[in-house]
Amino acid sequence: MSVGRVLSVASECVPLIKTGGLADVVGALPGALAPLGWEMRVLLPAYPGLLARLGEGAAEVWSDGDLFGGPARVMAGEVAGIAVLMLDAPHLYDRPGGPYSAGGLDHPDNAERFAALGWAAARIALEGLADGWRPDVVHAHDWQAGLAPAYLRYAGGGGWAGAPRSVMTIHNIAFQGWAEAAKLGALRLPYEQFHSDGLEYYGGLSTLKAGLVTADAITTVSPTYAEELMRPAFGMGLQGVIAARAGQMHGILNGIDDQVWDPANDPAIAPFSAGDPAGKIPNRLRLMEEFALHVPGPLAIVVSRLTDQKGIDLIPDALEDFIGAGGGLAVLGSGDPALEGAMRALETRYPGRVGVRIGYDEGLSHLMFAGADAVLVPSRFEPCGLTQMYGLRYGALPVVAATGGLADTVVNASPAALWQGAATGVVFHPADALGLQQALRRLTVLHADPEGWKAMVRRAMEQPLGWGASSAAYAALYAQLKG
User: Fold this and answer.
1) Count of domains in the chain?
2) CA quadruple 152, 153, 156, 160: dihedral sign
3) In this structure, how many other beta carbons lie within 10 angstroms of the beta carbon of residue 441?
4) pLDDT digits over 183-203, tens only?
5) pTM of structure
6) What distance, in Å, lies between the first and last C-alpha atoms of the chain?
7) Cβ atoms within 10 A of the Cβ of 66, count?
8) CATH number of the structural domain spanning residue 304
9) Which domain holds residue 193?
10) Is residue 345 part of a domain?
11) Which residues of the chain have pLDDT under 50?
12) Is residue 144 part of a domain?
């Protein structure tokens, strides 16, 4: 029995388009909420090639003759069990490059492109679709959807009492959707709201801030990150805005798709489980062969964007003692050219002990988690993080910085946690090279105790990492907003 309807507004959604973890969350929520009675449809831009994924049964359910410079329509269909609404606006989305950039440069009209997404979401919420569907709640994700709550709030010159309520989720506050103040009118935003308590942001506009000041509720993707965002070190200029709305702030930890990430039924690996972990041995052998490694001690992996935010620059200065103690490292990722070069230099410096693959390969990433003893996630900040959860699920114990969702999901192997049989990884602070170096020393000591290590691996693999608790928290929030 249906409890309510939610319009999820986002720029990415697995399995259609993905550049980061946002897409995983947006793609997972509809299925996770359905058993709880919430019907969710996902509105996203029709980037090149996506409309064909809707199939022959797609139907036009909304249209606009002039959506920020050209005609647009919304096509409804289903992809991989997800009810999808695609905003087909060729003048905005049918172009080469990625969702946000081409040739290394942002699309110059990104403000208009994603304002259009928010505008369409608000009109759908207020007017409904041609098939009669209308949401009770609008759930906007990150800066790309930040104007959806704003358009809802400002509809009809000050808001309409019957408008659906809205939720704004911060997946990563580092990306804020900045635009020049001169675009205020072109973006169909009210001039009277251009002030410090409204849309104004350091002399310009931020679509993320617009969502934060107008949404009925704010969520972020872990409880610790919700607290961190109220501090200057993490709030990136928006800490005051978030602190002012602390009463509407909710930290809801992301989950992972525990059907896709299931070591007992993963076609990319030799199967194993918490109760029968022997399958990790052939996976380790395959992983070492893939990266041309010979590692007698703990084998660690990095599966990440290669950026300073992810702490990748800390690894070169932290690795020497770990390698000297018999450890090894396999790296899969891409990003900052300087950091790609630094990883290549490690491979040259430690032949047979460090292997590097620049790029991304989904199947290879599954093998890496399955074959590794540990996964390194030394992020300076991490809103939630999925990598450490994949590590827990596959018995690759996480070595993580004490921040955001990393701190919320990994139990540090402190003496107390080891005595209590609770430890699931190594957590270090501060996030610097010395901290990571010390964490790797602790990892080596733990690995040298076979029985203790096996107990930690089993404990890690038994952690509940799916969407059960998180989807219940979202459902409760939606119900509160719906009233």
Assistant:
1) 2
2) positive
3) 16
4) 999 999 999 999 999 999 999
5) 0.91
6) 17
7) 8
8) 3.40.50.2000
9) 4-255+467-482
10) yes
11) 157-159
12) yes
